[in-house]
Amino acid sequence: MRAYRVVMMPSLLAVLLVGGCHARTNAPLTEAEKAEQRAQLQDDRAQLEQVPPPVKSKYMSIRSFDSWQNPALTVQANMLELHVVRGDANPSTLGVGGMLRPEGARKVELNITLDKLGEAVSSVPVDAWPYGRVVAIEEAHHVPANAEPMVRKNMEATLARLTELGVAVYDPNEGKLQ
Question: What pTM value is reported for the model?
Answer without folding.
Answer: 0.76
